[in-house]
Specification:
With 200 residues, this protein is α/β, with parallel strands linked by helices. It has helices spanning 28-35, 130-136, 149-162, 182-192, and strands at 2-8, 41-47, 68-71, 74-77, 103-107, 139-147, 166-175, 196-198. The chain has a six-stranded parallel sheet. It has a two-stranded antiparallel sheet with strand order 3-4. The two termini are 24 Å apart. The structure holds pyrazine-2-carboxylic acid and zinc ion. Its EC number is 3.5.1.19. Keywords: Hydrolase, Metal-binding, Pyridine nucleotide biosynthesis.
Length: 200
C-alpha cells in the first residue's frame, strides 16, 4: 500500500489573524510538519481565488458572510474575501514545511465556482487533476489533514472515498469552522462514507 499525505489549505487566511480564521488553525502546523517524513507522497492544497470570486459575500450586495446563496451548482456559503491569489493571506503559514511537498494543487481559481474539495470543484464534476496524479503515483491510502475540518478537509475526504481510495482523516491535525453544527454533521458524514477518523 502506498500512502499519501494530503495537506489541505494551511494558509494564513485560515489561521488566527486571517480573513477567515479557524480557531486554533495554526496548531495544526507542528503536527503536520512532524507527520510529513513518514509519507512517500506529500501533496499540499492552496485555496486560490481571483479577486471578486463568486464565493465572496462582498460580491452579493444583499448578503453577509456566512449566509447561503443558490448557485447554478447548488447552495453556496458566502465567505469573507479570503485567499486572493498572490496575497499574504493566500500564502502558506510561514512555519509549514512546504519544501517536502511533491505537488501543490491550487483550487477555487474559477470565478464562478468554488472548490472545497482537492478533487472536484463544488459542481462535483470539474476535476482538479489530483485523482490522476495520485493514481499514476500508485497512491492507495490517503491521510487527510489541515483546514477546515468541516469544509475543505470534509469534501476532500468524501470525494477521495467515493473515488475508491482508503481514506483516514487525522483529526489532531485538523481544525474546523463549525457553522451551525457543520462540524458534527461532517464527522457523521465522513463516518457514513467509510472514512476512518483518527486522533479525535
Ligand atoms: C475553505 C471556506 C472557503 C476551507 C476554503 O479551506 O475549508 N473554507 N474556502
Ligand atoms: Zn475559499
Amino acid at each position: 500500500m502506498t500512502d499519501a499525505l494530503i495537506v489541505i489549505d494551511v494558509q494564513n487566511d485560515f489561521c488566527p489573524g486571517g480573513a477567515l480564521a479557524v480557531a486554533g488553525g495554526d496548531e495544526v502546523v507542528p503536527r503536520i510538519n512532524a507527520m510529513m517524513d513518514a509519507y512517500p507522497i506529500r501533496v499540499l492544497t492552496q485555496d486560490w481565488h481571483p479577486a471578486g470570486h463568486s464565493s465572496f459575500a462582498s460580491e452579493h450586495p444583499a448578503k453577509a458572510p456566512m449566509e447561503t446563496v443558490e448557485m447554478p451548482y447548488g447552495p453556496q456559503v458566502l465567505w469573507p474575501d479570503h485567499c486572493v491569489q498572490g496575497s499574504d493571506g493566500a500564502a502558506f503559514h510561514v512555519d509549514l514545511r512546504t519544501d517536502p511537498a511533491d505537488l501543490i494543487v491550487r483550487k477555487g481559481f474559477r470565478k464562478a465556482v468554488d472548490s472545497y474539495s482537492a478533487f472536484f470543484e463544488n459542481d462535483h464534476v470539474t476535476p482538479t487533476g489530483l485523482e490522476g496524479y495520485l493514481r499514476s503515483r500508485g497512491a492507495e491510502r490517503l491521510v487527510v489533514v489541515g483546514l477546515a475540518t468541516d469544509f475543505c478537509v470534509n469534501y476532500s475526504a468524501l470525494d477521495a472515498a467515493r473515488l475508491g481510495f482508503d481514506v483516514t482523516v487525522e483529526l489532531s491535525a485538523c481544525r474546523g469552522i463549525d457553522l451551525g453544527g457543520s462540524l458534527d454533521a461532517a464527522l457523521e458524514g465522513l463516518r457514513a462514507a467509510g472514512v476512518r477518523l483518527e486522533g479525535g
